[in-house]
Design brief:
365 residues; alpha+beta; three-stranded antiparallel beta sheet; 10% strand; globular
Amino acid sequence: MIRRRYISTRLLKDGMIIDQSIIDRAGRILIARKTALDPFLIEALQRLSVSGVYIREGEEDPEEESILIPPKVIEAIEKQTVPDRSRLQLSESVKKHVCQGIQFLYANTSSQHFAEAANDISDSLLKAIEENDAIAMDISILKVSDEYTFRHSVDVAAMGMIVARKAGMSSREIRELGLAGLLHDIGKSKIPPDLLNKTGRLSDEEFSIMKKHPFLGYQLLKEKKDIPRSVKLAVLQHHEKISGNGYPFGIKGDQINSYSKIISITDIYDALVTERPYKKAFSQRDAVEMIMAMTDDLDVSAMRSFLDSVILYPVGSTVSLNNGERARVVKNTPGYPLRPKVIGLKTGRVYDLSEDIRCASVIIE
């Protein structure tokens, strides 16, 4: 299976396979897709001030290999390809550091180094976002641990920071929101393990206990002077709903902390797309559709920033349309994660799913 990732030009190495074509203003292909890079080509990319490119790793999907794409279609794909916005990437060293840090937090809630460790993780995530100027996210690359609680906390934090950046928050606010994401479920460290890890549906009594985790988390944090009050409130309120149907207090609208409004969305999204012993994972498309349907419960402005940030179908990926055609994604439009621009691999037909009304009935399956 081919894996495709965006990488800064300064980090390119000899032998890497480029997964996009480099085209000049006249429409001429300077470097063809699937070319193995060498020092000369890497230097040329740097001279052209190309900040980053997509590379491909792994083996070709036999199903994709069997598709014979006409030369004219290949040319159309190359010319109309618009690289995705820079996405958050975490190096293996950062993932390891973050994973160890989050495990320390859950195991040492009363440690005098708790706030220091939490702030250190948030700083690491912010640095990763700023280093590659990340303004979009692909949840499939964020996983840092096999342990759900740890992985979920980091996913919620990282996605929340990207959404906060899209919403125009300052670096301080983005960092604090990341801190809130990391700690939003810290109260679960005080929930009995047998209840926390139960594989079946919770009884009403068990769910009542589980619903105490936001307040328990707030209780753990309230005396920690190095944790901002806004972060503590976000931990307390991340299950509150705009409609007033949330918990623990049933507050609504502007009573809810601004960080909580973002954390609530990334929390729900990550939970939906993650498989658990008691449920199957929803597809990313289905999860986004479910989020979009929750306008009564979720903040619309935060939702808009979320939809502007998420990338479901990376440019260059092959998708199946409900009309039976397979197509190549050539452009993603912010705010329309379900409706990228694609080109049919056999017909060369262009489907601009976000703008062309003639494509209203066409969806990616």
